[in-house]
Write a structure and sequence with these properties.
The complex is a heterodimer of chains A (415) and B (138). Chain A has helices at residues 5-11, 17-32, 50-65, 69-72, 97-112, 123-126, 141-151, 160-169, 198-212, 230-244, 279-289, 308-318, 335-344, 346-352, 368-375, 385-390, 403-412; strands at 38-40, 44-46, 78-80, 171-173, 187-192, 219-222, 250-251, 274-278, 298-306, 328-333, 356-359, 379-382, 397-400. Chain A has 415 residues and is an alpha/beta fold. Chain A folds into 3 domains: 5-180, Aconitase, domain 3 (2-Layer Sandwich), CATH 3.30.499; 184-287, no CATH class; 290-412, Aconitase, domain 3, CATH 3.30.499.10. In chain A, the strands form 4 sheets. In chain A, strands 11-10-9-12-13 form a 5-stranded parallel beta sheet. In chain A, strands 7-6-5-8 form a 4-stranded parallel beta sheet. Chain A has a two-stranded antiparallel sheet with strand order 1-4. In chain A, strand 9, helix 12 (308-318) and strand 10 form a beta-alpha-beta unit. The termini of chain A are far apart. In chain B, the strands form 2 sheets. A 7-stranded mixed beta sheet of chain B has the order 1-9-8-2-5-6-7. Chain B contains 4 helices and 9 strands, in the order E-E-H-E-E-E-H-E-H-E-H-E-E. Chain B has helices at 30-33, 69-78, 93-102, 114-117; strands spanning 3-8, 17-23, 34-35, 40-41, 57-62, 85-90, 105-107, 123-127, 132-137. The chains are: A alpha/beta (415), B alpha/beta (138). Chain A binds chain B through residues 25, 28-29, 31-33, 47-49, 51-57, 60, 139-141, 156-162, 176, 209, 213-216, 241-246, 364-365, 369, 389-390, 392-395, and chain B through 10-13, 27, 31-35, 42-46, 62-72, 74-75, 78-79, 90-94, 96-98, 100-101.
Chain lengths: 415, 138
C-alpha cells in the first residue's frame, strides 16, 4: 500500500503504540483487499459487546489503556454500539456478575480512549447521521447499510477491532464501498408487494438478502410505491445485511444514489439479472418461520434498538393491558431514547404493563444463550427479521410476527 | 500412495498451518452459527450442524452478515477453541479483520469452488503468504 508521510510516522511508532499496532492491522486488511492507499474518515461507530470481546478482548483494551494519554486518544469522534450488559437490570435477567465485571472493565478502557459510550446501533437516528459522500467507519451491519444506502455515506463493514483501529488512525484502507466502482447495482429486484408492518420490511430485506447473497453484490429495488420511513428502512436494511451480508442497496427514486438509476449501472452491467419479489415470496418467508405449538416464552423487540416512535407505538398498543404471567416481553432501546421515554411517560406505560425495558443493549449481544437458559426462554417471537435470523444459533425457536401480533402474543402468552 | 492437489487463491492473512479439513457447502458467521463454548456448529439449519470445528481447516462458501466474528476469532483462539485455518470462496471485510486481529490463517478467492476441491478429512496445508493450499490424500 502507498503510505503518506504521516502514515509512515505512525508505522515507525512516532505517535505511540496504539496507532502503530492499528495501522499494522489495517495494512494487513488493506493488502488482503488490494487497497492502494488509505482514506481519511470523519467518525467511527464501534461494535464491542463483551460477549464478543471475551476476557482476551478486554485484556487487549486494557493494555492499550496503559499507554500515555496522547497516544491512546482517538483521533475522530467515536461512538459505541450496544453493550453486553444493562448494568441496571442484569440481575433481574439472572445474568452473571462476572459479565457485569467484564462490562465495567471494558467501559473504563473505552472511556480512557475518549470514546463516547452511546451504546446504540441506531446512531444514525439519534447521534449524528453521516452526510452524502462522507467517508466513515461504522461497525454494525445495520448502521453501515443505513449510512451507505439512505445517507449516501461510504463505509465498509468495520468489525470491532477494525473500527477501533480506524478510531486510532483516523483512516481506513480504501477498498470496497469507499470506491465508486463498488457502488454500482449488480442485481435488480422489482417489488410487487406492499410492506406495511416493520416485520414486512424485514421480511422483504431477508428475501432480497438471501437472493443477493454476497458482500460484493448491490441490489437495486424498483416498484416501491411510497417513500418509506426511517424505521422501515432501518428494518429493511438490517435484515438485508443480516441475511445477505449486503452493505448497500439502492431504491429507485428514494435513496440518494438512485435518483437517476441509469447512473447506477457499470458499463459491464448494462443488463442486470432481474427478479420480481411478490406477495407470495413474502408469505412463503413468513410461513418458513412457522408458529409455536405451545406457549410463547419471550417476545422481543430489538435488533435494531427501537426509536422513540417505535417506543410510542408499543406503548399505545399495550396501554391498559398486561403481559401474560408465563411470558416475558423484552424491549431494547438506546439510553438517549430511554431518557426521552422516561420524560414523556412512555416508560411508565410500558413498565406498568409488565414490559422489561432494557437500555444500551441488544438482545442477541447480551449472552443470549445463557440468559435464555436462566429464564426458561426457548420459544421467541419478534418483529425483527434480523433477530429471528441470528438467534437460531443461540438455541431459541424464533418466529417472525407483525408488531401488533407480537404485543398480542405477549399479553395472551401464545401466538 | 499419496496424491497432492495444489490450489491457488489470493494472498491471505496469518501463518502457514497444516490440519485436517472440515468442509461444508454453507456460509459462515461465528455469531450466527457456533456454540463457541463447546466448539460445535449450533445453528440447526447449518450444513455442519453438530460438527466440531476446533483445530480443523474450516472450509465454507462465503461470509454471512454480522460483525462479531472480528472479535470472536481471537477470543476463540485464546481458549484453544478456534479452527486452525479458515478458507472461504469469498470473504467480507469482517473475516479478514478478524483473522488479522487473531493471527488466524485465512484465505479466499480460489481458482475454483474451494468447497468442492477439498473433502472433509483431507489433510490440508494452508500457506497464506504464498496464496497456496495443498491437499494431501492418501
Amino acid at each position: 500500500m502507498n503510505l503518506n508521510g504521516y502514515e509512515k510516522s505512525i508505522l515507525a511508532g512516532e505517535f505511540g503504540y496504539p496507532r502503530q499496532q492499528a495501522l499494522h492491522q489495517q495494512i494487513e486488511v488493506g493488502r488482503f483487499f488490494d487497497a492502494v492507499d488509505f482514506v481519511e474518515i470523519s467518525q467511527v461507530h464501534l461494535m464491542a459487546d463483551t460477549e464478543s470481546l471475551g476476557e482476551t478482548g478486554i485484556e487487549y483494551l486494557e493494555e492499550l489503556a496503559k499507554c500515555p494519554e496522547q497516544d491512546r486518544k482517538v483521533t475522530v469522534p467515536t461512538v459505541t454500539d450496544p453493550r453486553g450488559i444493562d448494568l441496571c437490570r442484569y440481575r433481574m435477567l439472572k445474568q452473571k456478575q462476572e459479565w457485569a465485571t467484564l462490562e465495567q472493565r471494558a467501559i473504563v478502557a473505552f472511556e480512557s480512549f475518549g470514546i463516547l459510550m452511546t451504546n446504540t446501533c441506531i446512531n444514525y437516528q439519534i447521534v449524528q447521521a453521516p452526510v452524502f459522500g462522507e467517508h466513515i467507519a461504522f461497525g454494525d451491519t445495520g448502521s453501515v447499510i443505513y449510512a451507505n444506502s439512505v445517507c449516501g455515506a461510504r463505509s465498509n463493514f468495520e468489525g470491532g477491532p477494525a473500527a477501533l483501529c480506524a478510531a486510532f488512525t483516523g483512516r481506513v484502507p480504501r477498498y470496497g464501498y469507499h470506491l465508486d466502482r463498488q457502488r454500482h447495482a449488480t442485481h435488480c429486484f422489482t417489488v410487487d408487494f406492499e410492506p406495511v408492518d416493520l416485520a414486512d420490511w424485514g421480511a422483504l430485506g431477508a428475501v432480497i438478502g438471501q437472493r443477493t447473497g454476497s458482500y460484493w453484490n448491490v441490489p437495486l429495488l424498483t416498484g416501491i410505491q411510497t417513500s418509506p420511513t426511517s424505521d422501515q428502512l432501518k428494518h429493511f436494511g438490517a435484515a438485508l445485511a443480516s441475511y445477505g451480508s449486503v452493505p448497500l442497496f439502492h431504491m429507485d427514486g428514494i435513496t440518494p444514489e438512485a435518483q437517476n438509476i441509469s447512473t447506477l449501472f457499470a458499463e459491464s452491467n448494462s443488463s442486470l439479472p432481474t427478479e420480481t419479489i411478490s406477495t407470495k415470496d413474502i408469505k412463503t418467508f413468513y410461513a418458513k418461520q412457522g408458529r409455536h405449538k405451545g406457549k410463547v416464552d419471550v417476545v422481543v423487540m430489538a435488533a435494531p434498538q427501537l426509536s422513540l416512535l417505535e417506543m410510542q407505538d408499543i406503548a399505545e398498543m399495550i396501554a391498559g393491558r398486561h403481559v401474560h404471567d408465563n411470558t416475558d416481553f423484552v424491549v431494547a432501546t438506546a439510553p438517549e431514547i430511554k431518557t426521552a421515554c422516561d420524560r414523556m411517560g412512555i416508560t411508565k406505560t410500558l413498565e406498568d404493563a409488565g414490559v422489561i425495558l432494557l437500555e444500551g443493549v441488544c438482545f442477541y449481544q447480551m449472552y443470549a444463550r445463557e440468559t435464555g437458559y436462566a429464564n426458561g426462554w426457548k420459544n421467541l417471537v419478534s418483529n425483527s427479521a434480523k433477530l429471528v435470523n441470528i438467534i437460531q444459533g443461540y438455541d431459541y425457536v424464533p418466529v417472525l410476527a407483525t408488531t401488533e401480533q407480537c404485543v398480542d402474543a405477549a399479553v395472551s402468552g401464545s401466538l | 500412495m499419496s496424491e497432492n492437489l495444489t490450489i491457488r487463491g489470493h494472498q491471505g492473512i496469518g501463518g502457514k498451518v497444516t490440519a485436517v479439513a472440515l468442509v461444508g457447502g454453507d456460509n459462515f458467521s461465528a455469531r450466527y452459527d457456533l456454540d463457541r463454548i463447546n466448539g460445535v456448529f449450533s445453528r440447526p439449519a447449518h450444513a455442519l450442524y453438530g460438527q466440531n470445528y476446533v483445530d480443523r481447516v474450516l472450509v465454507l462458501n462465503t461470509a454471512k452478515g454480522g460483525v462479531a466474528t472480528s472479535w470472536m476469532l481471537r477470543e476463540m483462539k485464546s481458549r484453544g477453541m478456534a479452527p486452525a485455518a479458515l478458507l472461504l470462496n469469498a470473504s467480507n471485510p469482517i473475516m479478514a479483520q478478524g483473522a488479522a486481529f487473531a493471527g488466524l490463517a485465512f484465505m479466499d478467492r480460489f481458482d475454483d469452488d474451494i468447497t468442492k476441491l477439498i473433502n472433509t478429512g483431507d489433510t490440508v496445508t494452508v500457506d497464506p503468504k504464498l496464496g497456496v493450499v495443498t491437499v494431501v490424500r492418501c
